[in-house]
Protein 1
Amino acid sequence: MLRYLLMDLDGTLLPVDINFFLERYLYGLAPHFRHLADEATFIQQLMASTMETINNNDPRLTNEMVFWENFSQRMGVPRQELEPIFNEYYAKEFPGLKRYLPETDRAVKLLHQAKELEMELIVATNPIFPQSVIMERLRWIGCDQYPYLWVTAMENMHYCKPNPNYFREIVERLSLPPEECLMVGNDMEEDLPAKAVGIKTCIVTDFLIDRKTSKYTPDYLGTMDQFIKDLPAIVGKG
Ligand SMILES: [Mg+2]
């Protein structure tokens, strides 16, 4: 019986093509740093520090620590000077990105279905954003008020997908039996390494990302609508 549902955000709960979203985010943010770097340079440095964060495998460092250490070094500007600019953008402009999302109730339906099945929910989004930003994105789809067991964010995680340690950290921190967990995502490379820890996996195909490099195959593959409908059978209550 599967009792814990780990849910990816971008392309899974959030009906969004990640590149489309990232572009709007980056080009909205970059002008705020014009006094420090031109837009192309800023974006390049931000992406490089994000990659460093994703690749870091040091168990002593949170993603937040890795990112800020790296990014402030790249920019030659201390975190205390950079972070308030991010925060102002997140507070004033970022919420407006909601307008690029199609209206959907699929995420709410999934949460409802999981609750009916008495599953505990974990938001397992790649933890490269602060918690507040992840909660804002959950708000866009009406899913911010749910009593999640955990929401992974840059402050509370030491690894990123596709590192299997990301999934290991979740099950260890929450003391979850991996065989009772199900990871649902849209990215073959990022979400399937959950299998390395013994977690069952589902890939939803609405915004499928498949670089054909994953060594894993999902236990279940289908559209989000099919997944919601089949969830009772998938978790062993059908
Ligand atoms: Mg995704």
Protein 2
Amino acid sequence: MDKALIGIVPGKEKYVHIIWQVNDTCNYKCSYCNEGNWGGRYRNDNFSEFESILQKIVSHFKGQNYNNFKIFFSGGEPSLWKPLIPVIEFFRENTQNPRVAINTNLSRSLDWWKKNYHYFQDIIASFHIEFADKDRYLDNFKFLQYRIPYLVSRVLLHDERFKEVVEFAERLKSESDNYYVEYAPLMSELNSHSEDHYYEEEWKRKFIAEHQLDRQKEIDFCNTYRPKETYHEELREGGRKESLNSNRLVALGENRFKGWQCWVQECIYIHPNGDITMGSCRVTDSIGHLSTGEISIPKESVICPFERCNCGTDISVTKLHPEHLNDYIDSFSIPITSSEGSL
Ligand code: SF4
Ligand code: SF4
């Protein structure tokens, strides 16, 4: 059995995370989602309105000796967002080799992906049974499978259509030859503090347990084209490190960091309404807003006040168990000045 998790630490070098929930516009309305993701109140279509705040964010982190930026776009459906490519171009021009990730429902046409795939290093292709065009999803996935360093099909386990979702995953595996499938149980709501959805039928709970808890079964994959570099690592008691797998931590309930020191100041979260906070967990009050162009980024880490850390990017933020702070704090160059997080 694994020793206790005591930290999430940078792999080779420290990273800035910018998570941008670009708007609340989506071409789907999944029953397990909520209006905050598809309501269409905030389109944020005008790039010129937020270019200066992006400049401020980049300058702040360069001044803190952060050289690596990871930008993660979600939504809504971010591939439909007009400024998507101009924003990526901005980061390409102003930072060194930014890593660009997108969480998409893969509903854009194959032509769109052919034209734009080269902008992305990570694609999380969520499959939503109620709305997805299965053939289009598969055509896109098969096109991307050898072109994207990290591509995962994230199949959402719709409770009533569970079997159909699993059948689709089997079809994807039989038709692709470089796949990476993640079976994603539903949350009671799609937000960062939500608890797991409870599946009444035992066979569904068994399926989830079998496909999540065992490392080999948790994700089916052909290991032919995966990134070699480790960006973040799990640190276990005794000092053993391994590549971070946030899905496994969630499945094992190891995403509970209440009382831990968390360097959330390396994680900017831009909300659909333009509000900017640290982390998707909103552990800080607002630190700026797209519409005003004003931003004040804290330099302190926080003590996590939350029971769960649900978002994959929040999980990958550097953090240490309080009893092990002194043992490891010198091994990465991030200041420890801290404040108490607020609920
Ligand atoms: S595709 Fe994603 S954002 Fe859109 S409605 Fe479904 S779960 Fe919500
Ligand atoms: S919930 Fe927020 S404060 Fe807590 S560990 Fe995750 S990112 Fe850090």
